[in-house]
Specification:
It contains 14 helices and eight strands. The longest helix is centred in the middle third of the chain and has 19 residues. Bound molecules: zinc ion (ZN).
Length: about 350
Amino acid sequence: MEKNASPFNKPKVELHVHLDGSIKPETILYFAKKRQIKLPGNTLEDLLHHVCYKEPLSLTEFLAKFNIYMPAIAGDREAIKRIAYEFVEMKAKEGVIYVEVRYSPHFLANCKVDPIPWGQKEGDLTPDNVVELVNQGLREGEKAFNVKARSILCCMRHMPNWSAEVVELCKKYKNNTVVAIDLAGDESLNCEAYPGHRKAYEEAVKSGVHRTVHAGEVGPPCIIKEAIDVLKAERIGHGYHVIEDPVLYKELLEKDMHFEVCPWSSYLTGACPPDFTTHPITQFKKDKANYSLNTDDPLIFGSTLDVDYSIAVKHMAFTEEEFKRVNINAAKSCFLPEKEKKELLHKLYEAYGMVISTAL
Ligand SMILES: [Zn+2]
């Protein structure tokens, strides 16, 4: 991808990006050295060689990437706060004015989490402490870089015993950066078999916590149906495979369901066939569906938001008008309270030259 070729130099909104997939490689090196944690190499080049990839890999191979660098960050207070702060800085450089960043608090903890992830020794950093630290980093980043940042806490499909705590953390930190709950991981583990997630989402509905679910990324349309009918998802993470079920697709178009799509990610994870010209996003575009463009895991995919926007221009015939529409849809579908959502929309309308003067 060419550098510095920004296809859309106007304010953007991003709704689907993972904090633990967006860490600066320099920061991983710094904390690995400080904490004496072994990485596959000691230079930036070595690290990126092992962590990034450019051709599709299996889910198992993709997940193995986290094993490489998460031990350098997880369980460390300073590291967790710093990755949140630097995340906001990264988004400011990409022209993002509002972002919802998601992560599993349990994956960054080393205490009161079963099992303790990444082969860490037990420490004293609980999932609750993790959320507090991320919140601090995001809030400081907001002030420093003039980007509004909110967070989404992830349940993991293979860890239904974590989900009850995830929703409790969403409630505790509601409006203190946390705006929603998510479900991520292997879609073949449905909620029928894992009622822990269903219960957590029921609690989210009851407590007014917003809901998104990774569904139909690699999994079939029935996973999307389950996300909406059982988990009461208000947005769908990815959702590409919805087009294989025309009845469901039509229903979701009518409902104006929001799809958080990630073009470059969908290529590298093998979620979609490699030909971008026939990508489900081209269908979404044609049907004027409600969707946003997102990076997902830019560290691992060696990307920035510009890469996704460039793919959309090069292979999907995106115009300035479509980028505006996509970002306005993202703002309309974000999980901010109504008043703040209106303010965000107003900012976009202004920047896009769409404001009708109301001056007296
Ligand atoms: Zn994701």
